[in-house]
Amino acid sequence: SIVPQGGNTGLVVGSTPDRSGRQIVLSLQRMQAVRCLDPANLTMTVEAGCVLQSLQEAARQAGCLLPLSLAAEGSCTIGGNLATNAGGTQVVRYGNARDLCLGLEVVTAQGEVWNGLSGLRKDNTGYDLRDLFIGSEGTLGVITGATLKLHPQPASVTTALASVATLDAAVALLQLAQARLGAGLTGFEVMGRCALGLVRKHMPQLAQPLPPSEWTVLLEQSDSESEAHAQALFEALLEAALERGLIDDAAVASSLEQSKAMWHLRESIPIAQAAEGMNIKHDIALPVSSVARFVARTDAALIEAFPGIRLVNFGHLGDGNLHYNVQAPEGADAAIFLRTHEQAVNGIVYDAVGEFAGSISAEHGIGALKREELARRKSPVALGLMRVIKQALDPSGTMNPGRML
Predict the structure, then answer these.
(1) Residue 394: is its pLDDT beyond 80?
(2) Per the confidence metrics, is the pTM higher than 0.70?
(3) Fewest CB atoms within 10 A around its CB: which of 32, 196, 298, 404?
(4) Residue 72: how many other CB atoms lie within 10 Å
């Protein structure tokens, strides 16, 4: 059997061979060519081993924007991004990896090459095979190339941090930002007190412009007009939010360096959490309107069941994707806590996700780690259809066995 590998940045054991010694690891890292970059068509055709950050830079040099952006962009590859339908920080405007892909090149389980590298935005000639392979985690075939959708570079980008007392206030701020900025709102992140507290503890050299609060929002606007126009819109938004009592304080980046520093705070949370010790991670999606109620109910249930537990919540509130992570009580042995309580913690979290019509995997995929959970929570009809597709495209079970199904 074959286990495709990209940048090895996954979090669900999706590209790690088993211990049998009988699996072939197929690395795509040497496939790093940009085959075509077409600014007029706003597309680029690339090979699967290209590192995401290098593609962002290639697009920028051509005066274009590849808006897929995530913390691992310096090492993750576009093939892996598509195989897991990666999300990231700009989904609120540009969508997931699926939304940024127009075509694929795939090697099938039978060894045939399907060349579907279309740069067309309209093509109704049959089933959309592309969408079968995106998000399939290498279980149906190996993505070797992709044609990606580009966007014009924005004229200006404005970034700010805002303190909010509650998640309800953060959601209200999101609605206000969407009404005031429209498609200009490109990022809307939320970070809990504990999450930024760990950054402050383990990375004290990183400046935090605002004093600690229950929740901190990171929002970003991209504007096609002048920087002055963008600044005026942003300031009006924050003034309105202050008047309505949605935010307690705010800091607007006055330079590109300050903007990068704000994003660095957000991206440092997983690093700080790892420095604190082993933790239980949940990459979940919820209707934005349900996020505050989910957090309140699940926090209470976990605190009651495990006194002293620390809840490290952060994520992409703009699209309802929350990284709901659980840290052992301070002073406890993290490894023992995980070994003893991980199953019970997951049960509480995933039961609540189901009650709020959410998803147990927003952007990290299923892999081997969440396979059994998927089997418990996906409907029999959906699982049956997935197995039919798997059997049709990979009847011998060659492609990445033990993942997803």
Answers:
(1) yes
(2) yes
(3) 32
(4) 21
